[in-house]
Amino acid sequence: MRCPFCGNPDSQVKDSRPNEEGSAIRRRRACLSCGQRFTTVERVQLRELVVVKQDGRRAPFDRDKISRSIRIALRKRPVSDEQMEQIVTGVVRQLEASGDTEVASARIGELAMDALKEVDGVGYVRFASVYRDFTEARDFSEILTLMESKTQQSEQKD
């Protein structure tokens, strides 16, 4: 693993621990050249995913991008880092399990919104406002009305 401080390609693993319910390994490393310590995270990647944007462009899937978006939506909300990571991991697993190597950006957004809706309504609305490009206050009102009607329907079933 290349040292982020000096660029040396050799480092020594000092400590390894499972992370995220065993789906990743966190490793503390020390550079053999400059002695600086840094952390790496290794995850199993079932296949290389390619995101197909709305304009047809293709880009490699970036787990960190969806993670940042979810963290921004849940900023200052009573949701733990572990819960946020579980949301991201769930979205990625669903994408990988689909069997497709190319996935529409709209599908990623929908999966993220579905997961956020289950965890935190405010985070869901924040994410939806960016994802669906809300331009007017009416857009917020419409999504809140939709959320309320779905909540009432589920309460009536119980």
From TrEMBL:
One of its GO terms (biological process) is negative regulation of DNA-templated transcription. One of its GO terms (molecular function) is ATP binding. Residues 1-22 are annotated as: Disordered. Binds 1 zinc ion. Its cofactor is Zn(2+). Coiled coil: none annotated. Keywords: ATP-binding, DNA-binding, Metal-binding, Nucleotide-binding, Repressor, Transcription, Transcription regulation, Zinc, Zinc-finger. Pfam families: ATP-cone, Zn_ribbon_NrdR. Residues 12-22 have a biased composition (Basic and acidic residues). Residues 49-139 form the ATP-cone domain. NCBIfam families: transcriptional regulator NrdR. Belongs to the NrdR family. PANTHER family: TRANSCRIPTIONAL REPRESSOR NRDR. Negatively regulates transcription of bacterial ribonucleotide reductase nrd genes and operons by binding to NrdR-boxes. This is Transcriptional repressor NrdR. It comes from Acetobacter fabarum. The gene is nrdR.
